[in-house]
Amino acid sequence: MPYITPNLRLLFSSSSSSYSLLFPPKPSFSLFSRPTNTRHSLLTILSSSSSSKRHRSSSFTQQNQKKQSSLIINRRSESTFPKRAPMEESVKESSSSFGFNKRRAEGRDGVDKPKKNPQLKTRRLNPTNTISYVQILGTGMDTQDTSPSVLLFFDKQRFIFNAGEGLQRFCTEHKIKLSKIDHIFLSRVCSETAGGLPGLLLTLAGIGEEGMSVNIWGPSDFKYLVDAMKSFIPHAAMVHTHSFGPAPCSDVASLPDLTKLADPIVLIDNEVVKISAILLKPNSSEGSAAKPGEMSVIYVCELREIVGKFDPKKAAALGLRPGPKYRELQSGKSVKSDHQDTMVHPCDVMGPSVPGPVVLLVDCPTESHVLELLSIESLNRYYADDSSDVPECSRTVNCIIHLSPTSVTSTPDYLKWMKRFGTAQHIMAGHQMKNVEVPILQSSARIAARLNYVCPQLFPAPGFWSLQHPNNSTIDSSTSQGPISRLSECISAENLLKFTLRPHAHLGLDRTNIPSLVSPSRVMEELFSEIPSIVDAAQDVGHLWHGPRGTKEEIPSMRNNEIMTEEPWLDENQLPSCLENVRRDDLEIVLLGTGSSQPSKYRNVSSIHINLFAEGSLLLDCGEGTLGQLKRRYGVEGADNAVRNLRCIWISHIHADHHTGLARVLALRRDLLKGVPHEPLLVVGPGPLKRFLDAYQRLEDLDMQFLNCKYTKEASWKDFECDGDSNRDSMSPGSPVNNGDMNKNTESNLFTKGSRMQSFWNKPVDNSTAFPLLKSLKKVLSESGLETLISFPVVHCPQAFGIVLKAADRINSIGKVIPGWKIVYSGDTRPCTELVEASRGATVLIHEATFEDEMLEEAIAKNHSTTKEAIEAGSSAGVYRIILTHFSQRYPKIPVFDGKHMHKACIGFDMMSINLADLPVIPKALPYLKLLFKDDMPVDEELDDVDVMDAAGAV
Questions:
Q1: Polar residues composition bias: which ranges (predicted)?
Q2: Rounded CA gap, 700 and 685, in Å?
């Protein structure tokens, strides 16, 4: 038996009685045990096909259990529970039926922590013996949802330009260590260029004991983004943010004419490189000043000149003795000869110098910016046709990376400007070029292709990875860029394309790191070779869908003559009444992200697309990269339609892995509906989210309205539905009814009397502000065929919620009333009675299952759930189907779970699309899906010890 700490024993003994009332005891089981009966069903054999591998993983875990438990307890005693034993406080101060970390739920878990002071890295730089290059990190060309990032690499220093959503996933995929980055520069400040910045800052802040920091640079409106991020990112993670240039303002007279600035703004000037910024604003001929988000930057990267080698023979011939004068000459100073009455200059004794390469990164987002670009005087020294009076100041530009969209780079004015740089290499990285239809995240795409082969019903073919012509590794510039193809030194960017800067002998393009394209047929060949039985498994899965619904389906016999018995749960075929005569265009649940904490190779962070087809759609949570996932699922055009048709976005809590993709989705919707009559999108979320959105909207308009989750609780809805004006008057601020009485029945059992959380739930609320928004939400729900959207509090952090969605009843062809389906999403939570009560009779419960069953202590400390707890919560509430999600990234491809208890449940995967009509079948497909991952093992906990949410703290 695994080692149980005394505190954990205390938890079991203290809460066992109340726990058993809610979850009746079940026979004990072993996570990795094999059935002793010699008669096996096909599903039993499939579900235990990876038993031996898991057993090895379990053995490894047990061998290190005491060590890891000790590490966990020590770590928590220093941070999460500095004054009490962790489990003891959970039991003594909770009236809930479950153990949980009360301090974390109240947002006090970081109060007594030693404050981190992330340090900037210090480097010893050598301009001579160094390797340097610029490299494209994601072109944005497969999903076109973000701006490309560019890496400027030196042996001892790294710089990144732009940090759009998905940067972490891309770097993880290609083993680029973001912990090595020293500086990040933004070419513009908007969701397109900076959407990945919050998650990156939190990741860096969570590394090691003290965390790591990075310098971040942006034009003056960068301060608006910093102010917005402060609502959920610790100050220590943002102490090294720098803005430059004149502040954006409404008074055009107070903004200097940037085109007349003779010198760029120098940001970095060290032994290896000088990085300068040239500001670019839209043309102000109409008398309007640059607004926040409109300022753009051209970055100039100039590598240092490498002086020639000192020749001692020449020095001796000129009458110099070895000594200090040799060093002075090498440092560029002239000296007097020791034996001759002459001055010796450095050029007399030094070999020819190697000029430093120059790279420009140009982001010219609109044609209005082009007009300003043509007149910027500080660029004159870099033009090949420069006729300035000081030619010695001119520099030859070797490479220009264009982040500008094709709609700009194809204009005659922009092409004319490009030609002024002579033979410079132009790399066109604008993300609006022709879609290449090749995934930049090939690991997750490979998994998606395999899942699609085994079960296309749950995993439709990705919307963008057609690869009909997989051998087309280069883009036809004549079709993708039009007139640009006439420039002799112009190519399209590709992922991981390099332009080598040092050593000078290798100056130029380097394509050796560009990922090779893999066709779907090659992926399938690898799968058949690795798992030969997968062909039969795919046929068996197909049989599940072709069998008659609502009846007992035949399970194909084993092809290896194994004697098969049927699992008892296969007889559980009674459909809930809401699924009677269900149509495939009623509802589809698409899991866009099923991982926790931070994006990984195989799983993005939390987001669920509720597709109501003709009635529109909703998003439940919107973690970083949600827009990219939508485009991978539906294709570029299909995702645009999905964003246009969004009716509401609901956010469970303020942790970054649940909301940092929100701005990008809202910005795209704003652009797609520009000029079209429409209503601002309703965003329902916790109070702290409003602080972020209000601050962010100073940077760019998101075209949304915010409604606090607390106004969508059941009690608030009942109050709203009461008779009109008299009730609304009675609920005005300061009225006796407005003292929180309506919330006591729902929330008072969350925490003990008098706790901070209870006082929060019961504090006065201003319903007069909420009623107009509730009226709008009611209208949206009605138009979408939904009856209710109810938020309910859960136990995770302050202001954490779950949600209930219920469809309106319908009438069938013979006049029978068919009840609407009911979906419950847990958000992040410990098991709690509020969640169980909200899930009563639900058609689907989507429940977080961050940890495997053996990690209960870790789940309690971080206020998450184990797989078993999630399943038991749904089972006790009479839920028809349970979908598990939000898995720790220590489980790269599939979490650890016990197949014996999955008769109502299914493991979620990214891009999994669950149609309402397929609910009866999904548990039966799970063992076949598991066969794909029979050799997968969890990552050692110590290798995955970065807790992004710990770094963020609870808000």
A1: 60-72, 729-748
A2: 20
